[in-house]
Amino acid sequence: MKTKLIFFAFLVFSIMNIKAQCNPTITSPRLGLKYPDKILFCETEDEILSTQIFGTYQWYKQAWTWQTPNNNPWEIIPGATSQQLTISGNDQLYYFKVAVTQGDCTAESPAIMADGFVYALPAMMTTLTPGTYEDLGGGEINVCEGASVKFDDAFPIVYGVHTWYQCFPGNIPPVAGDPCIISGVTGDSYTATTSGEYGFYACTEYCPDQCKFLGTNSFVKLNFGSWGFCENMGTGETKTRDNNLKVYPNPTAQFLYIGKESDKAYKEISIIDMTGKLVLQKRDHQYKQAIDVSHLVPGNYIIISKSSDGKNEYKNKFIKK
């Protein structure tokens, strides 16, 4: 009988202990769709964060930073004391957590992040063959007749369907029949062989209704013609652009190496973020010399390298962890 009483007391204690435990977690419709523990927003929609049923709730947020550890304080969200929390696009680049109580138990959920990945502003990369063009500045370029210029959306991972233009459009968003629209071209690149002013309008893949216009200030004006500097075209004095430089490790958290042994050195190295902003630039970079990118925000980047003689330009992508 004594053994049974001991067992019964142990069972009751175990049940009470289980009831006293609370392990809140956060769920939401977009959480983890692309990256674990992250929510990627669509610009025009809200997102609802939820946790399990407990006695009380208090939601907190913390501003994101590239620094590790994140020393920004956790802030109480006023009035956020329900099982659910609605956040909007204004809440991107914040971490969220919820503190709960259930009986004599108090606990906090793991943090999740609301990310601005899908907000990358459109940026256009222009690829020209050395010896076939003259940059006049201000977004205007003279190009040799018979040459070509390739335009790329710098962030194709973000944007899906594109509308390409060969002059400034009359309407944004695009309207069918606009003579500036290049018919039948919807990909993330376009190769121009005739004069015009080039740019694009594109919608994000993750949020099909979220679209951005490159902006007329970022259009590139091409003037194709038989310019005096075109006389050396085809003589072998210049080399075409090569996109196959070795970039390693990729992804990387701290150091990045770029180059090929035959080049030995590069006149200039430029790293551009997802908004088109120049975030790092080095001159006279040596092959096998480490580039410290530890201070960069995790995400996708374009790295542009110019050979020591200035005749070759390389464009590669890498991921900062």
TrEMBL record:
Signal peptide range in chain numbering: 1-20
Superkingdom in the source lineage: Bacteria
Gene3D superfamilies linked to this entry: 2.60.40.2700
Keyword S-adenosyl-L-methionine part of the UniProt annotation: no
InterPro entries: Secre_tail
Secretion system C-terminal sorting domain span: 247-313
Keyword Signal: yes
Keywords carried by this UniProt record: Signal
Organism whose genome encodes this protein: Chryseobacterium lactis
Protein name (record): Secretion protein
